[in-house]
User: Fold this.
Amino acid sequence: MFFSSIHADYTKMGYPKAIIRALDFLKHTDLTKLSGGRHEIEGTLMYANVDDVETKEFAATKPESHKEYIDIQFMVRGEENMGFFVDRDLIKPVESYPERDAYFYPNEAKDEGLIHCPEGYYTVFFPSDIHRPLLAVKEPMAIRKVVVKVHVSLLDE
Assistant:
């Protein structure tokens, strides 16, 4: 998992080339003007989901993970907290949607950390990172975030 500001020089952080291309998209695209929904960047191997959503109270969220795609979650407008913990096979998914590459877990994590993600910050979650997005910071609020999905095969470049 990585967490940083889009204004930091991510080209000097040793990130994989595909992650740098995804961050270039986030940095050099006017994300306030993109329509909601899916936007292909490199076909089905890399695409962005533009989400206008509301953050939620902790109890209304579920941890999630993905096996085929890396999530780069970027805050365009608003702020959220995100929970995270490493998948050590201690808990199993309670809901699995392989066709959507989405796996949801019960609220049982004992070592879940928390990240505060304000505007202009991103978090990169790998398949080993179980994460809980959309947590309200103080109270639920409307946000705009973009999640770039990067297929794990692109890490082989």
